[in-house]
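Dig into what follows:
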Amino acid sequence: MMQINATLNLSTGFGIHGYEIPFTTSMFPAGEVYINTEVPFGAKAVRINSRCKNGNDIMRILMAVDSMQRQGVRHTELFIPYLPYSRQDRVCKKGDAFSLRVMAFMLIQAVDRIITYDAHSSVALTLMDLKLKDYNNHREVERFIKSINPMPERMVLIAPDAGAVKKAEKLYNSLDLFQGIVYCGKSRVGREVIIDDIQEDLSGMHAVVVDDICDGGRTFIALGRKLQDRNVMSMSLFVSHGIFSNGTKRLKEMYQNIGTTNSINSAETTPDGVKCFNLGY
């Protein structure tokens, strides 16, 4: 693997490796993306940073790779902390597209290495094989916990559903900060999220809920009610990717501390009252 000696920073707030490549980008009236890069002499291995949110961002990445290769770049790696379409990791019914497979195919054809952060689905690792490096969220969770400074002897980790169990157990074993793990069950009836009753008595405990994505927040609101029923002293929530499509008002009414990273929003555009930790990989 070639050592990265230049960075194309399509999104700010991430790590810069070597020389920062100047670029200009715009949109044509008919909706097409335009990009021009100025690769310096000697830049042969380039990191592209992108907070990819839509199809135009994907096209901008693909065109940037072509632009730089035409100027002598021989190796490109893409840091894309939130992997688009990672939640569409299977075909649920006849006629659906396998969206994550489509996304993976485009990226692995374009770049030599892909770096993600706390990818939602292990299917991404299978589809992208050796080209994908996925960082876990342990470092940022530890920073979050130190920033809220709860009593360590009274802190318990909450796995909000079955899909979070494996990651929660790895986090628990890695950080040595929690007194235990509470495993929660979840089901859905239409748009309503139902959390199974929690059996453990959590009186006087600081509950720290950790998950990869918060979109509308219904899971964490329903979970918060169940935790309150078990007499927790406080509740904190950390999500690697804070979409917060329904805002954070109801979450902040329930959780004393909320943390996320700058994978979706920059630190400047993260909702007020939410701690944002920059990813410097």
Summary: The two ends are 17 Å apart (CA to CA).
